[in-house]
Amino acid sequence: MSDDLFGAPPPQALRLFYALWPAPDIAGSLHGIATTLQGRVMNRAGLHVTVGFAGAQLPERIPVLRELAQRCPLPRVSLCIDHLEYWSAQFVVAVPREVPAELREAVMRIHAEMRGLGMKVEPHGWSPHITLLRKAPLQPLPEIEPMAWRIDALHLAVSDGTGRYDILHSQDCVA
What we know:
Elements: H1 3-6, E1 14-20, H2 24-34, E2 40-41, E3 49-57, H3 62-71, E4 78-81, E5 83-87, E6 91-95, H4 101-116, E7 130-134, E8 147-150, E9 153-159, E10 165-172
Antiparallel strand pairs: 1-3, 1-9, 2-7, 4-8, 5-6, 6-7, 9-10
């Protein structure tokens, strides 16, 4: 997403977002696949699925975002990453061919809550993906074995703008 969508950040603002972090074995497998391809490989520890980008927020908003996560817990479901594709002709992403309906509904509730707080949510809806490569030249993408992971928590994280993230809050999923 471009910064134009969200406007210029205020001074001292943090780039905050909600995300799902895959299990370490899945992150390792996806990172291993990425290293066999051409392009800028994303940091293994940073591989995630963005649920909602809160944009540039002052630190005082962190408790509000933490409360939102508590009000809108995600269901404990499995997400199966089973396909690689190009986005914007320069990003290689790993995606699920199917998204559990209950997960999609829960994410839409989070987006509605974010809008209620005055945040601009990606206007094209939610398309779960894990970015593996940036600046990737066109190349044949391999078929991958399906990788299912049981989602255990929704994380509120901050980006430092370099691809490094810190988790500020984790909200356990519900059965």
